[in-house]
Amino acid sequence: MDEQQKASQSPIFFRPYTYDPPPLKSTGRSRIRRVFLWGTLFIGLPLGILMLSWFMTLPDIEHLTRTNPTSTALMETRQTQAKEQGRPIKRQWVWVPLSRISPHLRHAVVAAEDASFFIHDGFDWEGIKEAAKYNIEAGELKRGGSTITQQLAKNLYLSSERSLLRKAREALITHHLEQHLPKNRILELYLNVAEWGQGIYGAEAAARHHFGKPSLELTVDEAAWLAAILPSPRRYDPLRKTTFLTRRHEHILKWIDRQSSTPVSVTDE
Is residue 163 predicted with pLDDT exceeding 60? Predict the structure, then answer.
């Protein structure tokens, strides 16, 4: 009896009940979603605003179907540079229709600057790939793989700085040029605004300055010389035949021969 009372009176210890819920399986996913949302807010939103502003401030390309430009961004830049350096501001520029530009010069420029001009959509993807490879190896933006349409976009509307943002805007304008203008109009514009020396713009002024004749009278040899200086028109002169120019001139003549055998021709339609 005593033992039973002792057993019944002995203290009983209860282990306190606790519940630890397992970690939520979605914690990692929630964190990723939060990072993605914040990344979109801080990166995507500014980029979206930038793209929207670019679309809203795009130049009126459609008016180029019926109107010739009275100046270009490149010309304005050259004038500003001349003023800052205290040099006289000069501009030799005579606008002529494509029909008054020598077919030899049209072929030479296309052969030298953009052989696939009449078949691409404004971008030479093979050229861009090669330029990108070269730039990665060089560690800086040195080559652009630019087509005639891209060069026209830059000459008409953009600065000459080398940056990814400027290239992006150039691509946007290039796309719009190709969408609104036929190829021969793009070529006509380019041949009339391209820089061909210090203060010399367009094929007509270039022909008169370098060879003392109108553009329509240029021979195939003279046209090849003018096309040869286009990569650096303020550095080279077709009358001073350096080794580089001579080699490039010979290549252009060969390219013209190859082009003349293709079904695509540079017409004035």
Answer: yes
67 vs 61: CA distance, rounded Å: 10
The rounded distance, in Å, linking the Cα atoms of 250 and 111 is 12
Q: Which among 101, 80, 108 is positioned nearest to 206, based on CA atoms? A: 101
CB-based contact 151:113 (threshold 8 Å) = yes
Give the side-chain half-sphere CA count within 13 A for 226. Answer: 34
Which whole number is the average pLDDT over 5-22? 54
Rounded distance between C-alpha atoms, residue 72 and residue 70, angstroms: 7
| CA 203 – CA 106 distance, rounded (Å) | 10
Report the 10 Å Cβ neighbour count for 24. 9
d(Cα 196, Cα 150) in Å, to the nearest integer?
17
> What digits encode the pLDDT tens for the residues 184-216?
999 999 999 999 998 999 999 999 999 999 999
Which pLDDT value is given to residue 240?
Answer: 77
> What average pLDDT score do residues 44-68 get?
70
CB of 65 closer than 8 Å to CB of 176: no
Which residue in the block uniquely carries the two structure tokens 């039973």?
4
Phi, psi of 231 (to 5 degrees): -60, -35
Interacting residues of 103 by C-beta distance below 8 A, sequence separation 6+: 266
Cα–Cα distances (Å) from 218 to 36, 101, 224, in that order, read 61, 8, 10
Q: Which domains are delineated in the chain?
A: 96-260 (1.10.3810.10)
pLDDT reading at 94 higher than 80: yes
